[in-house]
Amino acid sequence: MLTEDRAAQAEELSDADLIERSRSNPDCFAHIFDRHAGEILRYVHARLGPDLAEDVVAETFLAAFRHRERYDTTRPDARPWLYGIAVRQIGRHRRAVPPGRRRRHRLPRRTVLLAACATVVAAHGGFGADVGDEVLGNGNPPTCTPTR
Q: Alpha-carbon Rg of the chain, whole angstroms?
């Protein structure tokens, strides 16, 4: 029952109050995580995908915990602060990805299909003229039938 009372009290407190309390009682910071981790996870997932999202969120909250002394407690909502930390973590992870791989993730689907067809064409020595039309135009998957 004591923990239920504490959880209810924590829900009534602003993020700034919780962060202020966490400076002397680190366990209070867990309430910040509970409040905002899901939202930050969705944000990171949309930008980096599922493979890195959980790691980046963990790094975000670890950085927030380590730097909670710097938090401006005149701001009751910690979300802008947490999003700022998440953006920096996302940037670090994007810079760690080789440039060629990073660019491929941003290519439109049509460009990726054309590149795939070009690779197949080069490997098989040529295809019918309708391959490009099928990839670009009517939405049907390319047949990629060799001309030989």
A: 25
131 vs 82, residue with greater confidence: 82
Q: What share of the chain is helix, strand, coil (3-state, %, to 5)?
A: 75, 0, 20
| Angle between helical axes of 29-48 and 2-12 (0-180°, round to 10) | 60
Residues 6+ apart with CB under 8 A from 134: 140, 141, 142, 143
Higher per-residue confidence, 137 vs 3: 3
User: DSSP states of 82-108 as a string?
Assistant: HHHHHHHHHHHHHHHS-HHHHHHHHS-
Reply yes or no on whether the pLDDT at 114 is more than 60: no
Distance CA 62, CA 64 (A): 5
Q: Are 28 and 21 in contact (CB under 8 A)?
A: yes
Contact 15, 76 (CB under 8 A): yes
Phi, psi of 58 (to 5 degrees): -60, -45
82 vs 102, which has greater pLDDT?
A: 82
Taking the C-alpha atoms of residue 70 and residue 20, their distance in angstroms, rounded to an integer, is 10
pTM: 0.63
